[in-house]
User: What shape does this take?
Amino acid sequence: MSRLLFLTLSIGGVLMLPGTPAMAQAAPAARVQAQSTQGQQATRDDSESESSFGNEDGRPEKLVLPSATPVAVDQNTPAGTTWVNPNDGLTYVWIPPGKFMLGCSPGDTNCDPDEKPREYTIDHGFWMGQTLVTQGAYKRVTGENPSFYKHGDQYPVEKVDYVDAYGYCVAVGMRLPNEAEWEYAARANTTGARYSDDLDSIAWYKDNSLGHSHPVAQKQPNAFKLYDMLGDMWQWTTDLPGPYSGQVILHGGSWMTKASTVRVSNRGRDTPEGARRFTSFRCVSGSFKDTRYSSDEVIQRDSKGNMVGIK
Assistant: This one.
């Protein structure tokens, strides 16, 4: 089965991929995990070994998707407006600009050191997928369905690595969200560890999922009308835990994660090649060229650019 690749040609014909230099080479399989000083996994089961497949040098073959014209953005769009992207048939919600506290929520005792709270400004409104990308939408755009749980078109697509997720978003005129955009949208003007005190009402997680994923939009949305921002599937963002980490930040937790992990500020990590049955994504409007990385503001680096700590 072929997989997807977004290619951008720059001056001089250099291949550019948004996010991390690790996408240009093969990397060992890694666990999606909540960052902590002990390096604990998000759950005991949130790890799986995947055999490589693809061309003779071990790298998976990827299908090149054409990039679509970026979707139009009007900053005067009223908050909560919905719009159907004709490229994939999914509904998107307008998220207005604003300020919020990024990172550990007040009173949250499960936070890790890299969740240090700080005020952050989202200075632009953007469209965001109301749901995770569904298997039906993914097949419509790519002609493929890599998912492990092929139970219907309304189930979230999974087993999609970072590069393929970004390629899909660009093919529908969008991009992946950065970490701050994701957390701001997930919080939806709330300040707690979750956007509802009733976790069962908003999320599929280890205690209620019955050991598998579920169709999108079966739980209550947040105040921005976004479904499944917590639970069901880890979600790719474009931030890195460090400049040479070879990993990418994910958010949201999954149907496999325990309740203490299903928090808006919790940061999972995986290699960009990680195509897991508990990982999916949603797209936002804009180009990767205008993406800001909130993680850059708190990472301490030495004179060589290596990550040495958190501010």
Q: What stands out?
A: The chain has one domain: 1-21+58-311. The CA atoms of residues 8 and 16 lie 6 Å apart. The chain is about 10% helix and 15% strand.
